[in-house]
Write a structure and sequence with these properties.
mainly alpha; two-stranded parallel sheet; binds adenosine monophosphate; globular; binds tryptophan; 336 residues
């Protein structure tokens, strides 16, 4: 046991690879928090079935997600890495939190609004509606102080805070009120082919989405075809030059060099030079990450062992919080 602050975050196993937006916006920031915080990181498979899915793919992607997280630097000795469905308390607390969430409040969540607008309410499952409440349960079960995420998740953390405050004021202090940790520079990595949109696995075209497990040749091709902006000078101006600025952000974060220094180094050079350098940096960075992921995937037993240990630790903490929450709402204690 430690008295360090807690961190929790989660990622969905809904693709065969994370993309660079996931990695730079979220996962990368999870790594240093293992040293400063008591860390819990979760592959959120319950969230992953809110949209139609293939069972075999889900099982495979759950391991691929865990392997990528380990390859990215999560260390089973310094964090609990686990699969959400291995910890039954997530679904149990979600029910309780659903009962204190307003119907209108849940209806205002962007993800739900977008999906129903796009597909119609008969095609969107109730799981999409309750999704953010399950996410609140994920966070509150661990009494997390901080939640490292990308910009698109801000609204869900706001809801989590509202629900925790409401629960605490109605039933007595039970939950820690968490803060979002959003690193401004990388909070929204944009699509290389469409800099007006965020990089996303659900984009129709994957031409502007770099998967972290993608082959070097494919990565290079996508970066070389990235949409840049009118003009020729390499400048950092996300509002006026979103494409070029996005490439600079990617290069800066992966190389550890400051944006200003990079901009100076491109003086007198053009977008072609920028793209070549960015491609080289991305490939250099992702190649060992891909290899480490493959290594973990070739040791399924070892991977499953890490996840089992993580889930055991998670259940201890989640079990204690759920018991407190059940007691607070007045459930009769179950006799064992
Ligand atoms: P998801 O794949 O939706 O489970 O997202 C996992 C994490 O990646 C979340 O914290 C998101 O906020 C973050 N994320 C997803 N797309 C981007 C993006 N384009 N830029 C920055 N962060 C992102
Ligand atoms: N909704 C998040 C996403 O799409 C994933 C997630 C689920 C999450 N539970 C979480 C993130 C708890 C942070 C904390 O990215």
């Amino acid at each position: 046991m430690t008295n360090r602050q807690r961190v929790l975050s989660g990622i969905q196993p809904t693709a065969d690879s994370f993309h660079l937006g996931n990695y730079l916006g979220a996962v990368r920031n999870w790594v240093p928090l293992q040293d400063s915080h008591d860390a819990f990181y979760c592959v959120v498979d319950l969230h992953a079935i809110t949209n139609p899915h293939d069972p075999a793919a889900l099982r495979r992607r759950t391991r691929v997600a865990a392997a990528q997280l380990l390859a990215a630097g999560l260390d089973p000795d310094r964090c609990a890495l686990f699969v959400q469905s291995h910890v039954p308390q997530h679904a149990e607390l979600a029910w309780v939190m659903e009962c204190i969430t307003g119907f209108g409040e849940a209806s205002r969540m962007t993800q739900f609004k977008d999906r129903t607008a796009r597909y119609g309410s008969d095609k969107v499952g109730v799981g999409v509606f309750t999704y953010p409440i399950l996410q609140a349960a994920d966070i509150l079960l661990y009494q997390a102080n901080v939640v490292p995420i990308g910009e698109d998740q801000r609204q869900h953390i706001e809801l989590t805070r509202d629900l925790a405050q409401r629960f605490n004021s109605r039933f007595g202090d039970t939950f820690v009120i968490p803060d979002a940790l959003i690193v401004k520079e990388t909070a929204k990595i944009v699509d290389l082919a469409d800099p007006a949109a965020k990089m996303s696995k659900s984009s129709e075209s994957q031409a502007g989405v770099i998967d972290i497990l993608e082959e070097p040749a494919a990565i290079t091709k996508k970066i070389k075809r990235a949409v840049t902006d009118t003009g020729t000078e390499v400048r950092f101006d996300p509002a006026k030059q979103p494409g070029v600025s996005n490439l600079l952000t990617i290069q800066s974060t992966l190389s550890g060099r400051q944006i200003e220094e990079l901009v100076t180094s491109y003086a007198g050079k053009g977008y072609g030079d920028l793209k070549s350098e960015v491609a080289a940096v991305v490939v250099d960075y992702l190649t060992p990450l891909r290899e480490r992921t493959q290594k973990w995937l070739s040791d399924e037993a070892g991977l499953d062992e890490v996840l089992a240990t993580g889930a055991a630790r998670a259940r201890e903490v989640a079990g204690a919080t759920l018991a407190a929450a059940y007691d607070a709402v007045g459930f009769l204690p179950a006799r064992r």
